[in-house]
Amino acid sequence: MIKILSTSFLMLLMLHFPQQATAEVYKWVDEAGRIHFTDSPPEGKKAKSVNITPPNTYNSPSADSIKNTLARPTGVTSGKPKVIVYSTTWCGVCKKAKRWLRQNKIAFREYDTEKSARGRRDYKKMKGRGVPIFKVGTQRLNGFSPSSLTQALRKAGYNI
């Protein structure tokens, strides 16, 4: 019983105090001028001990740096829903609508219903029949009307 306890104690102690494996590395030059690195100095040659830092080391971040990183603002406005515009490049009304959104400083994401895979997929899923289509959160607007879009944006919490 005592032997088991003492063995367990020694193993536990070894786990808590790991030994570092270190090896000496020597650098020397042979008669032909070639540089060699060996783990023991050659006999009759002048060798210099080389200090090598351990490879693949990693210093973990401190708890404070993690806390500061997580506390940083992300730039994502969580209070307002996203505005998405489904459009095409040739649509004049789409261009006018996007210009109106930019002038009113409304951030939006645009999907081209002809060139973008996601735009095509969403357009088909919504059973779209024309462009532009606006999604403000869960609200959907077909076509562009400044008054309708203003009303939907205000309902979603935008100051416009």
What would you say this structure looks like, in words?
- The protein is of the alpha+beta class and 160 residues long.
- It has a domain at 83-155: Glutaredoxin (3-Layer(aba) Sandwich).
- It has helices at 2-16, 63-71, 92-103, 117-125, 146-155, and strands at residues 25-29, 35-38, 48-50, 83-87, 109-112, 133-136, 139-142.
- The strands form two sheets. Strands 5-4-6-7 form a four-stranded mixed sheet, sandwiched between helices. A three-stranded antiparallel sheet has the order 2-1-3, with no helix packed on it.
- The chain is elongated.
- The N and C termini lie far apart (80 Å).
- The mean pLDDT is 84.
Question: Which structural traits does this protein have?
Answer:
18% strand; Glutaredoxin; elongated; 160 residues; alpha+beta
Helices, strands, pairings?
Elements: H1 2-16, E1 25-29, E2 35-38, E3 48-50, H2 63-71, E4 83-87, H3 92-103, E5 109-112, H4 117-125, E6 133-136, E7 139-142, H5 146-155
Structural class of the secondary elements? alpha+beta
CATH topological fold name of the domain at 83-155: Glutaredoxin
Q: Please tally the β strands and state the result.
A: 7
Helical proportion, percent range: 25-40%
Which CATH architecture of the domain at 83-155 is right?
3-Layer(aba) Sandwich
Q: What is the CATH first-level class name of the domain at 83-155? A: Alpha Beta
Provide the gyration radius in Å: 34 Å
Mean pLDDT: 84
Proportion of strand residues:
15-25%
Q: Main β-sheet: number of strands, strand sense, barrel status?
A: 4 strands, mixed
The CATH superfamily name of the domain at 83-155 is Glutaredoxin
Walk across the major sheet and give the strand order: 5-4-6-7
Overall shape? elongated
Question: First CA to last CA: what distance?
Answer: 80 Å
| Spans of at least 5 consecutive residues with low confidence | none
User: Total helix count?
Assistant: 5
Order of helices and strands: HEEEHEHEHEEH
